[in-house]
Here is the input.
Amino acid sequence: DPSTLAELDSVDCGARIGSRPAFSPDGNWLAFRRDNTTATDLVILDMHHKREVKVLKTAKSDGALVLFARGGSLLLTASYADDVIRVWDTVAWREVAVFPAKFPENGRGGMATSPDGNTLAVGGKDGLVRLWDLNRLMEMAPLRSGAGAVYSVVFSPDGKTLVLGALDRTI
Here is the structure.
C-alpha cells in the first residue's frame, strides 16, 4: 500500500527478478525478466490470481526494457544481445514482429510508447530515434538527434513532444 508502505501480499517468483518490470495498462499483468545464466525468461504474472500466466523464452538481456502498448494488446521486449525489439500479441502470447534497433554500446537504450500506445520511439547509438507505427507494425521515418547516441526517450503526456537524452548530455 503506497500510502502506508505496508506490504499487502507477495508472490514467490523463483529466480532473481531482473530490472525494469512493467504493468499492463489495466494492472492485470506484470511482465518481468527472470535472470539465469543462459537466457532471460520473460514472465507474465496475473496480478489478480497471483500466478504465472506465461513464460516467454528470450535472449539474455539483463536490464532490457519491457513495455506494454496499444492498451495492453502488445508487449514490447528489448533484446540488447541481438539489437532488436520483439513485439508480442498478448492474446495468443506469440511474437508478431521484430524491429531492428541500434542500442547504445552499453546496452541501455531508451524505449517509450506514446500515451495512446500507438507509436514506439527507440534511441540508437547512431544518433537516430527510430519510430514505429504499432497499429501497422511498420517503421516510420526516423528522427536525427545530432547529439550522438540516444540513451533515453520519453513522450509528453499529450503525445505532442518527444524528449531525448543523448551522449552530449543534453535533453
Observations:
- The chain has a mean pLDDT of 82.
- The longest strand covers residues 29-35.
- The CA atoms of residues 118 and 135 lie 6 Å apart.
- The radius of gyration is 16 Å.
